[in-house]
Fold this protein.
Amino acid sequence: MAPKAKETGKRKGKGKVTQKVAKASAGQPQPKLEKELPPPKLLGPPLLPQQPQASGSNRALQTFDEMLRRVAALEQQAGTVEQPAAAALTDQAGRPQVAMKPDDTRDRIQTLLLHILRDAEDSNNIVSIPILEHRWRRRGSYRGLSLPVLESLLELYEVRGESNRMLLETCRDLQSPSSICSLTRTTGLSFAETVVLTADREGISCEGLVGKADGYFVYGWLGTSIGDLLRASIRTLRRQEQLHGRGRKLFIDLFGASQNLICGRYGRHGAGREGARAEDYDATFESVFDVCDTVVLHLSPLAVGAQWPAPLDTHRVVHQYLDESMGSPEVGWMREGPVALTRAWCVKELAQGLGAGCSLQLESDDAGHATLLELVGRGEIERVHELILVDREFRHVQIRRASDRARIQRILEAAGGYARLREGLLEAIDLYVSQLQLA
């Protein structure tokens, strides 16, 4: 914890900043206050009701809760959670070692998910503006999620029968208690920050759940389901943890940014605290590249002959090219290849990562993984390259907001341009092929 956060947390009087806020901001320097702030609203009552309300929207939640209780009971009966054997408490030289506590990481995140779900279903907990100003928030570089968190999220969406929902629906559908916007409407912040604040309120440790991001996950929203995204990120972390021999965490913007802010839930203009009505992109996204060592590109869709429509804006106009000299795309254009490599923001993230010295790794969706295994098994390595790098010159990269064009082009040039990006992708493809050959 930074010294300034400690001093601020101890401040007394009407305008104090609570210890909880200071703790939630751990791991990042805190700016000096120009004026004292009113205490932020925390996450509802200090104690949750023992039983959720018996409504239709709670049925899946009760099923999830009951399933966790059954699993815990079975594990206890089977003795799967126990202290290490006495023989394991010495090293090879016979020196005594400190006994390790059983890993309760999975229990903690599942308990926190239940608290977050129940909080979000109580309309009294829904905020009209984010509970923290940007300067008090945890930086994006410390919003990485661990493997147990991603596995528990996948289990939640599978139990609710929502793992096949597209990302846009999973993110913004307020009719679903488990959408990201629903889960975070008690804070107005990101899912990662909501987990940290809920854990702080409940006295649950966040160790091994949310922390410094080791990797940045780049993906396209179009045509990707929440199940595909989570399974791909889980495969990525398992492979990385085996390679590095320790726990790793991924920054995924679906969980690391305030989706309620991004979709304009609180209005983009008007009165209110400064900076509280739009996401802080620099502190959320750009800061991750200061600490991570890996950028992961999600390849979806990735199947022979797979096509998908070029995205349209709200006025049913095809998104424009990043390269303005290319003119305008045709209406009804059917595209091929991974969505992420056609989107300006994703290409910018890949270039930033490579420019920051990160290694680039690839991870395909479920169907694409099977396709690549088949092609590699037949020795059709060049076909693998063709499926991934459909637009080798990146001339048909599209952008949603023309106002972002100059900024993205400036970042691309500073990171070495398309030539450096293409070189990094070719190296990553060769590495991915070698991994598939060993599978």
Q: What stands out?
A: The mean pLDDT is 78. The CA atoms of residues 63 and 159 lie 8 Å apart. Residues 417-438 form the longest helix (22 residues).
